[in-house]
Amino acid sequence: MSGILIKNGRVIDPANNIDANLDLHIVEGKIAQVGQNLVTENAETVDADGLLVTPGLIDIHVHLRDPGLEYKEDIVSGTQAAAAGGVTSLACMPNTQPIIDNLAICRYIISKAQEQGFANVFPIGSITKGLQGETLSEMGELKEGGCVGFSDDGLPVVSSELMRRGLEYADTFDAPIISHAEDLSLVGSGVMNEGPVATELGLKGIPWVAEDAMTARDIMLAEFTGGRLHMAHVSTRGSVELVRQAKARGVRVTCEATPHHFTLTDEAVHGYNTNAKMNPPLRSVADRDAVRAGLADGTIDAIATDHAPHHIDEKNVEFAMALNGIVGLETLLPLTLKLVEEAVIDLTQAIALMTCQPARIIGIERGTLGVGSVADIALIDPNLTWKLTPEKLHSKSKNTPFEGWNMKGAAMKTFLTGKVVYSR
Ligand code: DOR
Ligand code: ZN
């Protein structure tokens, strides 16, 4: 037995209730042994003294922009950014050009990622053909081809009837419907959160009820159909509470929150900062704190970045004209560890929110370090401090509101199927 022996690290594997100083032995891309003082013959040794050894992180909400918008990001640069952030698996949203609503695009993404990527890529198919909100896409075929869920992310499914059918249809092959919840009539021409900051800046607001109203509808449809619903990027006090109550009633609903929504508020928009513009928008302190409380009490199942790269020319414009979204893959880990530092969640919860819990939502066999599982692993230095500068980002796009921030925590090495895909 040769392979790789990761020694002296603190192994945190929430799926198996493990938090202990252990060695981990990788053979042929799989975890062969986990234990104390492992003795191996001819294994290459990696010293993880002072580091956390965790399952590779899993980000179930990423815009890879490939095919069609490769000037913002592509499968290679996006998965490089992932690896640098400790992320070994990601699910990519279908608002590419063309849309992921057919088998050819689904296959293109999977094969390009396998051939050239630095992370596992799991496509999410669209709920409706062409994201048009008119007819359902061929979900069965897409699931067969490797799609792990369905979403019209970027847009709500306006027709309640179609959302009902989507939930029913997707459930026949046990796939989640991932909802981007906003009532567009309430959003109107809003460009940031409705509130005092918007008033001060003279910008049109998006009220919280735009998210809450659609979240309530989708939960009711999930309750009615029995289908499986996942709420993307919850950002309001009300939507967290709606999910909390629905779970208590036994509705099959899960949800995710982004690092920006649990870290920032709409105050970040001051100065008309277009890198603080995204959808859903940054909200009030009460909303941000409700998202934190939802993470703490388990209402929120996963942390997902909504990594949404845009070219600088799409951000260096008047606030109202700027495109929505920020890059997130390379700040996921330090911003989540900050929650641990601030005692909002504990370290095990933090790792679970980025590994086994998101894995369960999209039904992939990842996010654990159990013997026999694929050796997707992150070696994390939780104490390393570094300053975020755009040049440090591996992503093609640099649209982040965290520029100049001092970050704490970084992936030192990322293993994908037992191979090092990133080393700091
Ligand atoms: O900020 C966002 N960016 N929100 C979305 O819903 C879509 C995304 C994008 O594709 O840029
Ligand atoms: Zn998104």
Q: How does this structure look, described?
A:
The chain is of the alpha/beta class. It has two domains: 4-52 and 374-423, Roll (Urease, subunit C, domain 1); 57-362, Metal-dependent hydrolases (TIM Barrel). Helices cover 31% and strands 23% of the residues. A hairpin with a 4-residue loop joins strand 1 and strand 2. The longest helix is centred in the middle third of the chain and has 18 residues, at 208-225. The structure holds (4S)-2,6-dioxohexahydropyrimidine-4-carboxylic acid and zinc ion (ZN). (4S)-2,6-dioxohexahydropyrimidine-4-carboxylic acid binds at residues 63, 95, 153-154, 180, 278-279, 306, 308, 324-325.
Helix percent band: 25-40%
**Overall number of strands:** 18
Largest sheet: 8 strands, mixed
The CATH architecture of the largest domain is Alpha-Beta Barrel
Tell me what portion of residues adopts beta-strand conformation.
15-25%
Based on the model shown, name its key terms:
424 residues, alpha/beta, Urease, subunit C, domain 1, TIM Barrel, 2 domains, five-stranded parallel β-sheet, 14 helices, 18 strands, globular, binds (4S)-2,6-dioxohexahydropyrimidine-4-carboxylic acid, binds zinc ion
